Amino acid sequence: MDEGELDSRLMSAVRAGDAEAVRALLDEGAAPGKEPRLRLPEAARERLLTSARGWYETGAAEELRRRTGTPGPATTVRVQDSEYDHVDQVSLGGLVVRAGHGAILTSLEWAFRILTPVDELIARAVAQPDENHVNWSTVCWILTQRRSFETWSAVVAHRHHPAPAHRRFVMDYLRMRALLRTGSSDYEKKESDFLATWAAEETDSGTLAKVLDAFTEYGHPGQEAIGLRYAGHPDPRVRREVPYALFAHDVPHTPAARAALLTLTRDPDAEVRIRACTVGIRDDELLPEIIQALLLLTEDPDPGLRASAAGALAGSRDRTPAVANALAALLDEDDQLVRLEAAYGLALRNDPRTDEAIDRVGPLGAAFDHDHRADAHWRWKRRKDNSTTG
After folding, report:
1. 231: closest CA among 250, 256, 253?
2. How many CB atoms lie within 10 A of CB 320?
3. Alpha carbon distance 5, 23 (integer Å)
4. 3-state percent breakdown (helix, strand, coil) of the chain, nearest 5
5. Contact 190, 155 (CB under 8 A)
6. pLDDT tens for residues 259-285?
7. Cα four-point dihedral sign 63, 68, 69, 73
8. Sign of the C-alpha dihedral, residues 326, 268, 244, 251?
9. What are the strands of the beta sheet with 95-98, ordered from one edge?
10. What is the DSSP string of 93-121?
C-alpha cells in the first residue's frame, strides 16, 4: 500500500471512530517484523492526529450534531470493537460512528513515536471506567510497550489516586505486564513488593480483590500473612482470592493457613468454598473436610461450580465409594466437560462403571487429542483389551 492510500484509509477509519481498523492499518503500514513505524509525511501525520484529537475532545455525539445540524439526543448502542473489547456506536442525523477516538489517538501517537504523558493517557483511559472499553485497553497495552522505569513509576503512582478507577487501571497494567513478561527480575521484585504494600493498605473491596489476584502470582514471602489478614473479609470477592495466598508450594501448610483454609471450605459463598477446596485438596489433614465440601458442591445449582467440583473430585486421592458414586451421578450432566471429568475420575479408580461413563461422554473432537482426561479413557480401554486377550 502506498503512502497516499494508507493516509486516505487511515483518515476514513479515524473519522468512523473504528479503532480496530486503525490498528490493522498501522500494522499493515509498519515495516515487516517491526513495531508500527509509518513513513507518512509530517503533514499527513498531523492531519490524522488533529482529526482524532478533535473527535475525541468534542465527543462523538456532539461532533455528529455539529456536522449534521440535527438537534436532540443521539442513539447509542454498545458494539464489539474486537474479540475482547467493546465501544459505543453513536447515530445521529443519518450518520453513524464509533466512539473509539480516544483509542485511535493513543495508537496514532505511539505509531508516530509521540510519548504522551502517562497521566494524560490514564485520564483518557478512565474517562470510560470499564476495563473492556477500547480506550482503556489500548492505553493499557501502549503503556506496557513503553518499558522505561520512568513510565512504570508514573503508572504505579496512581495507586494512591482517590478514584478507584485509577487504581483498577494500575492493576490491569501490572497484570498485562506479567502476562507479557516485560521487564527484568528486578522489576518483578519491585512489583511483588509494591503489591504486598498495596494489598495491606487498599480499602476498596473490588480493587483489593484485583490486587490480591495479581499479588499471588509472585510468591512473595509475606503472602501467607496477607492471606490470613483477609480470610474473614466481609466481601466474598476478596475472600475468593485468599486461598491462593495460602497456597503452599511443595511444603506443608502452616497450622494457621490450614485452619483458615478449613474455615473457607465452609464459607457462605460457594466460589470461596471451591477455591479453598482446590488449594487444600493435597493436604492430608484437610482432605476429609474438603471431600465433604466438594460432594455438596456437585449438587450446587450453578453448573460452573458443579464442573469445578467434578474436576477436583476426579483428580483427588480419595478412593471411597462416596466419591465414585458422586462422579457417576454427574454423568447425567448436560455439559460434556463435566461428563468428561466424571468419566476420567472413574477411570482413575478402575471403577466398573467406566465403560458406560466413556460412552456417556460422547464423541470428542480433535481439540481433545492431547487431553489428559481423554488419554485416561484410551488407557482404560487398552488395559481392558489387554486383560481380555491375555
Report:
1. 256
2. 12
3. 16
4. 65, 5, 30
5. no
6. 999 999 999 999 999 999 999 999 999
7. negative
8. negative
9. 75-80, 86-92, 95-98
10. TTEEEES-HHHHHHHHHHHTT----HHHH
**pLDDT score of 227 more than 50:** yes
φ, ψ of residue 78 to 5 degrees: the values are -90, 130
Cα gap 41→333, rounded to integer Å: 62
The strand ranges marked E within the chain are 75-80, 86-92, 95-98
> 304 is written with which cell numbers?
460452573
3-state secondary structure of 315: helix
- Between the two ends of the chain, the Cα-to-Cα distance in Å is 68
Q: What is the DSSP letter of 253?
A: P
* Residue among 48, 155, 66 nearest 105 (CA): 48
Read out DSSP for 24-38? HHHHHHSPTTSS---
Q: Determine the angle formed by the axes of helices 336-348 and 372-389, rounding to 10 degrees.
A: 50
CA 383/CA 228 separation, integer angstroms: 46
Q: What is the pLDDT of residues 62-78, one digit of tens each?
A: 999 999 998 888 999 99
Q: And the C-alpha cell for 19?
A: 479503532
* Spatial CA neighbour of 373 closest among 311, 320, 304: 311
- Radius of gyration over every alpha carbon of the chain, rounded to an integer in angstroms: 27
CA atoms within 13 A on the CB side of 65: 10
- CA 362, CA 89: separation in Å to the nearest integer? 42
Task: Give dist(CA 226, CA 318) in Å, integer.
Answer: 31
Task: Band the pLDDT of 3: cuts 50, 70, 90.
Answer: confident
Contact 338, 331 (CB under 8 A): no
Number of H helices, E strands in the chain: 22, 3
Type of residue found at 155 = V
Cell of 91: 447515530
Provide the CA 250 distance to its chain's centre, in angstroms: 26
Task: Decide: 81 and 133 in contact? Cβ < 8 Å.
Answer: no
Q: Quote the CA–CA distance of 171 and 161 in Å, as a whole number.
A: 13
Backbone phi, psi, residue 355, to 5°: -55, -50
DSSP state of 252: P
